[in-house]
Prior knowledge:
By secondary structure, this protein is an alpha/beta fold. It is 63% helix and 9% strand. Helix 14 packs across helix 16. The site of adenosine-5'-triphosphate has 11 residues, from helix 11. InterPro entries: AAA+_ATPase (IPR003593), ABC1_TM_dom (IPR011527), ABC1_TM_sf (IPR036640), ABC_transporter-like_ATP-bd (IPR003439), ABC_transporter-like_CS (IPR017871), P-loop_NTPase (IPR027417), Type_1_exporter (IPR039421). One of its GO terms (cellular component) is plasma membrane.
Amino acid sequence: MTASTDRHRASQDDKPDRFWRRIEGVIDPFHDTEQEVLPKDAWRFILYFARQAKGPFVLLLITGGLVGAVDAGLYWSIGWLVDLLDRAEPATLFAEHWPELVGLLVLVFVIRASVMVGAAVVEQQIIVPGFFAMVRWQAFRRVIEQPYEFYQNDFAGRIATKIMQGGEAVGDFIVSVLQSIWSFLTFVILATSLLIALDPLMGLVVALWFAGYLMIIRYLLPRLRRAGRATADQRSIFNGRLVDAFTNIVAVKLFDSGRREHAFVRDGLEGFFNAVVRLTRAITTVRAAVNFLNGAMMASVGTIAVWNWTQGTISTGAIAAALGLVFRLNNMSGWMMFNINGLIRSYATIQDATGTISVLPAIRDADGAATMARAKGDIRFENVTFHYGKGAGVIEGFDLHVRPGERMALVGPSGAGKTTIVNLMLRLFDVEGGRILLDGQDIRTLTQGSLRAQFGVVSQEPMLMHRSIRDNIAYGRPGASEAEIVEAARRAAAHDFIVEVADQKGRKGYDAHVGERGVKLSGGQRQRIAIARMMLKDAPILILDEATSALDSEVEAAIQDNLERMMEGKTVIAVAHRLSTIAALDRLVVLDEGRIVEDGSHAELVAKRGLYAQLWKRQSGGFLPGRIAAE
Ligand SMILES: Nc1ncnc2c1ncn2[C@@H]1O[C@H](COP(=O)(O)OP(=O)(O)OP(=O)(O)O)[C@@H](O)[C@H]1O
């Protein structure tokens, strides 16, 4: 086959795709607004999104109404057909009545099918893909702005579920109201009108039936809503426990010999079960009540119809139409209950989701926040207080000045506040008192993006994404060339092992994907990738929080020179428990209970015989390693 026939076939294949794409593109999945926080109230949340896709929802309203009308027309025409067959002569039926019969065929074949297909296209091709995605996209864009603390207080899986389910629930809710409920209402109104035309008494019965139906719904709606909300809450709790168990699977394997995790998950499942039972009890009660009501309505209309027939006031066809309409109402009422139940569930899911999605981030860029160009690296803590929102403790009246180009280490016992100081500097938390200045500017007056761009961070937990190794390194500098990525990997002593790696799907080297949080690599390998990423970022301030803790001394020695070179001209703040890794730095700041207790060089602090000297003695066993001793 020639290239041109290939192209021709490809363009023909594209045609239906383009057709669908045009329809599916009516709602832009990535549309967004300027609104910083999404509405917290579930109703407002629904309306906020409905307003963003008015056109498709108006279409849905029209098709929903038409579906109800066509349905009523169809049942009416059954009566008409019965009457016609009753009157007409078989031999002349087609000759005399072909226009009406063709009209009926058109109604069944063309009109009904077109309306149904139209409704399906609007719902399935326009709203489901585009609208669901749009809600999820807007939710994601706001949730990702939440500060670190937000994620510390919730399960990642739970947050993700709320975004996924929230998008679906808003779409389902609106579709259900505009299509199912609206088509049902149209049908009820038309059926009642048609029955009134036959006999007002039949119309009255249906009107009374509808009033009773509404009363049942009204009575049970709040109960269903409460039970629905409880189910959603319990589902989240259960889901959270499952995610927690699977996320920390190693801890479970190592420590859970007594199968406590079973009990914990079982407890969650039991809570969910109890909530579901309350919900299903309410549903069964509704169904029982509706079935009795429907039975009464069908029996009454049937009796009235047959009575009228005996009196000769209505035709056989009218009985067929009347019974057809009320049987259809009976079927629809069950289906409506299902819809209303879905509606309540969706509403509860939305309420649950807005609790997470519609929250104003506790840390935001100030109005007119400045964008910092490359910093010199002068960091100043002025009388900083921070207690993680509690009354006291952690960091109290903390002052520290780190000069540009200074290489400093934070040292201190576990829990002294080293990581907290680093997190405050990165504005992962906001200070509760005092201020932190970067090159003389309060970090709260800078955009978070430009502030964090000044820092290259390697922490104990290297935070790798579930992507290729290349993407993980390039995360430090988007758009970096392949050569730059490989160079960074070499400097981090990572290149040699990277070229050997293969993932489960057979991708090799830099293309290999690291598992969720990099589980398929060793701790030291992950840390080297993180170091490569930091090297590539080339930020003016480096934060090495136990950056080499997972490396053996050989690998550490291999990258030491490169680390040294990278540190040149940069401000460095290191945190390490292994004092030998930081003893050579310019300045060691010793913390205890959130306060600076000593400040000086290694030699000065050893001579001082204070806390540092004690820590040092404990770690070095009383001896000074060669490299430090030589200084
Ligand atoms: N998210 C948090 N919420 C509440 N308290 C916290 C939080 N994170 C840390 N803390 C508390 O703050 C104190 C300082 O913790 P931090 O992690 O800063 O110490 P650290 O010196 O880095 O300790 P380590 O050397 O063990 O890593 C500790 O008492 C800790 O319990």
